């Protein structure tokens, strides 16, 4: 249950549930999580988009986020697991089809009822230690700065690169010449950042 998970994490962190902060995506499907957390006196930080960045934020003490709970996309869960594993964190997940169509798709992919009930560990989601994670901020966020224009033909970006085997986390600031970087120019057009 939600309550059991919050209590287990609070014990692992050596905190009372009233000292915990959980991040929950602001979606109607998560109302039951919010209600359960409130019963335990746990602080809740709601967020709109950016479930990968929010999941990663649980591994940085300065964010104040102790855990994240909710139903999200499979690819986002695997990406988040890779980053969390690089940082020495932990994560659990479960396949949670929200509709008959999604359940049918699970069966088409070969999942059994038993597999759909299984709680997946971080090792299930991101096997081994030969894992890397990299991200570059496009828009402003809690984890990374967004693209900033410098003069008429340069842009500054911030990226993070992580490696599970060594636990190394690198933040990289870069300045790009837009007249030599069509990929960045195309991204900026796509996100109306010209």
From TrEMBL:
<protein>
    <recommendedName>
        <fullName>fructose-bisphosphatase</fullName>
        <ecNumber>3.1.3.11</ecNumber>
    </recommendedName>
</protein>
<comment type="similarity">
    <text>Belongs to the FBPase class 2 family.</text>
</comment>
<keyword id="KW-0378">Hydrolase</keyword>
<keyword id="KW-0464">Manganese</keyword>
<dbReference type="InterPro" id="IPR004464">
    <property type="entry name" value="FBPase_class-2/SBPase"/>
</dbReference>
<keyword id="KW-0479">Metal-binding</keyword>
<keyword id="KW-0119">Carbohydrate metabolism</keyword>
<dbReference type="Pfam" id="PF03320">
    <property type="entry name" value="FBPase_glpX"/>
</dbReference>
<dbReference type="GO" id="GO:0042132">
    <property type="term" value="F:fructose 1,6-bisphosphate 1-phosphatase activity"/>
</dbReference>
<dbReference type="GO" id="GO:0006071">
    <property type="term" value="P:glycerol metabolic process"/>
</dbReference>
<dbReference type="GO" id="GO:0006094">
    <property type="term" value="P:gluconeogenesis"/>
</dbReference>
<dbReference type="GO" id="GO:0046872">
    <property type="term" value="F:metal ion binding"/>
</dbReference>
<comment type="pathway">
    <text>Carbohydrate biosynthesis.</text>
</comment>
<dbReference type="GO" id="GO:0030388">
    <property type="term" value="P:fructose 1,6-bisphosphate metabolic process"/>
</dbReference>
<dbReference type="GO" id="GO:0005829">
    <property type="term" value="C:cytosol"/>
</dbReference>
């Amino acid at each position: 249950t939600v309550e059991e998970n919050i209590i287990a994490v609070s014990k692992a962190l050596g905190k009372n549930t009233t000292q915990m902060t959980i991040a929950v995506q602001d979606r109607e499907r998560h109302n039951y999580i919010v209600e359960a957390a409130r019963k335990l006196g746990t602080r809740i930080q709601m967020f709109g988009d950016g479930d990968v960045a929010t999941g990663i934020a649980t591994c940085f003490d300065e964010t104040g986020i102790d855990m994240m709970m909710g139903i999200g996309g499979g690819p986002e869960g695997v990406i988040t697991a890779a980053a969390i594993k690089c940082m020495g964190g932990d994560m659990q997940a479960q396949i949670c089809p929200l509709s008959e169509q999604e359940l049918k798709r699970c069966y088409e992919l070969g999942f059994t009822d038993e597999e759909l009930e299984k709680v997946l560990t971080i090792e299930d989601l991101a096997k081994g230690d030969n894992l890397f994670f990299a991200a570059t901020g496009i828009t402003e966020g809690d984890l990374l700065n967004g693209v900033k224009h410098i003069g008429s033909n340069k842009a500054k970006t911030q990226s993070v690169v992580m490696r599970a085997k060594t636990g190394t986390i690198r933040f990289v600031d870069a300045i790009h010449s837009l007249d030599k970087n069509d990929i960045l120019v195309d991204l900026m057009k796509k996100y109306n950042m010209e």
